[in-house]
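Project standup — Tuesday

K.O.: blocked on the structure for the chain from last sprint. Re-posting the sequence here as requested.
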Amino acid sequence: MARDYRTLKLEILAETKQFVDDMKKSEKQTESFGEKIADFGKKAALAMAAFGAAAVAAGVQFSKAAAEDEQAANRLSETLRATTGATNAQIAAVEQYVLKTSLATGITDDQLRPAFERLARSTKSVNEAQDLLNLSLDLAAATGKPLESVTNALAKAYDGNYTSLNRLGLGIDQNAIKAKDFKGIYDQLNFTFGEFSENRSEQAIVKFQRLQVAVQEAKEQIGAALLPIMVKLGDWCYRDWE
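H.V.: unblocked you, prediction finished:
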């Protein structure tokens, strides 16, 4: 049976109302989506700005680390030239030794370079300084004493003063101490403690320290590459503010 006009009109009005409601709902959703997009854009812009600032800050930090490392390396180089007459090749070899030792032991080059310097001043020899530093690393690992303290004790003993070395409690033959037989004492200590540093390097805490050293070295390498740029930027800022 055919629908009457009233029924048809009500159906059309209902469909129209639904259409309008759907349009309003769609409009609200569109506005909400647009607001979300705008909000995301603001956050993204802030994130990019923050990333840029963080990148610059990291670059400055890495460059500073590289500059400090270069300064320490130059100081060691000057000491070796003055005390041992070391050549450029020998100095480069010492730097490689310091790097490899640092990565193997987890002891930073900030500790290794001054230790090498101290021993070089006493021995006047690159090779002897390196041998004594290797022993110092073993003794530090065995006793738990700071590397600086052990190095100073060995250097003083080399110079003829055995008091500090004797106080480390290493069980040194007192007859050798009285005779000031440094070669005999060195051989005894090397025989007794010669592998302590190498064995200690496999401990979990030392592995973590080695990882930290590797990360720091990576930062310094990045910083060394960025350093010329940072120097130019600093010069430009200085001229601009004058």
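K.O.: great, moving the ticket to review. The mean pLDDT is 76. The chain has ten helices and no strands.
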